[in-house]
C-alpha cells in the first residue's frame, strides 16, 4: 500500500520545501517525516541529491534508532521489517545538513496495513541558526570526546544527538534546525560552499534551498512558522580566513562584523516579533574576542527580548566537534537557561 507524501496523516517538521507536494524536499538537519501505522514492515522512496560526504537518513521506529545510507538519485529503502503486531510509529529524519537534499516520494506499507494519526507536534517552538555543531556533525565519534575529529565521510554526523535537538526534546519543543556546517555570518568567510564562493548565514538564513551546488536558491516564507525562542549560534567559523576579532578587536573589519551581526539579529527580531532571541556560540574552542563582540552587540541592542548566553566551558571545551556527552552537557545548560526565563515565553 503506497502512502504518498501529501497524505494528511503524515506529519512533517522542519523548514521543508513543499513546492511539489508529491515530492517535498528535505534540506536542513533534523527535518523529519513521522508516520503511525500497523503492519510488520515499511519502505520509503527517496531521491538523493548529493553534494559531498556519504549521505544517511535517520530512522526511529518504536524508539529504536538506525541509519540508512543513501545512493545517488532515485532509491527504494527498507526502513523496518519483522515488526510485531499493533501500531508502530516511525520517524524518518535528516541526519546531515545541505551536504545533500532529499526529495521524499512516499512510504510503502503491507497490503491491509492501516495508517493512523501520529502523536501531535509539541506546541513550543525553537529555531537554531548555527553551524556544524548545531547540526550534530561528527557527534557519534564517541572515542574522540575532547579531541580533534577523526577522519570520516559523514557517517558520524547525526542531528538527533546535536545539542539543538537535545535541548528541544528536554523542553518538549518542536525544532527548526536551520544550521549549516562551516557557515559563518558573512560571505567570503567561514568554510561553507567551497573556497572560491564562500557563503555566510547573512545570505542563507532566509532561504529554504541555499546550496548553490544543488540547484536554484529559494526564499523561505517566514510566516509559515514562528518560533517562541531563537538561538543564534554564529561566530566560530568567522575566524577563517582571518581571525579579525582576535587580531584587532577595534579594526575596521571587526567593527564591520559587529555591525552586520547586529543588523542580522535586528532582522530576526523583526521577522519574529514576539520571540526571545538568545545569542551564543558553543564549547568548541575559539577566541574569546568573538564572545566579547557578541556581548557588545547584545548590550547595544538593549532589548529584553535579546540575551547573551555563555556555557560554563564556552569556547574552551574541545578542539573537535561536539560528541554526544558534550552535547548533553550543553543542552542541560541551555535548557535550564531557557526554562529560567519563565513559562510566559511560550505564550
What keywords describe this structure?
347 residues, 6-stranded antiparallel β-sheet, 6 helices, 27% strand, alpha+beta
Draw up the topology in text.
Layout: E1 2-3, E2 11-13, E3 16-17, E4 25-26, E5 32-38, E6 42-50, E7 56-61, E8 64-69, E9 73-80, E10 87-94, E11 100-109, E12 115-116, E13 124-129, H1 132-135, H2 163-170, E14 173-177, E15 207-209, E16 218-219, E17 229-232, H3 244-247, H4 252-271, E18 276-279, H5 288-301, E19 306-308, H6 324-339
Parallel strand pairs: 13-14, 13-17, 17-18, 18-19
Antiparallel strand pairs: 1-11, 2-5, 3-4, 4-11, 5-10, 5-12, 6-9, 6-11, 7-8, 7-10, 15-16
How would you characterize the overall build of this protein?
The protein is of the alpha+beta class and 347 residues long. It has helices spanning 132-135, 163-170, 244-247, 252-271, 288-301, 324-339, and strands at residues 2-3, 11-13, 16-17, 25-26, 32-38, 42-50, 56-61, 64-69, 73-80, 87-94, 100-109, 115-116, 124-129, 173-177, 207-209, 218-219, 229-232, 276-279, 306-308. The strands form four sheets. Strands 1, 3, 4, 6, 9 and 11 form a six-stranded antiparallel sheet that branches. Helix 2 crosses helix 6 (324-339) and helix 4 (252-271) crosses helix 5. The relative contact order is 0.14. The model has no long low-confidence stretch (mean pLDDT 98).
Question: Care to give the gist of this entry?
Answer:
The chain is an alpha+beta fold and 347 residues long. It has six helices and 19 strands. Strands 1, 3, 4, 6, 9 and 11 form a six-stranded antiparallel beta sheet that branches. Strands 2, 5, 7, 8, 10 and 12 form a six-stranded antiparallel beta sheet that branches. Strands 14-13-17-18-19 form a five-stranded parallel beta sheet, sandwiched between helices.
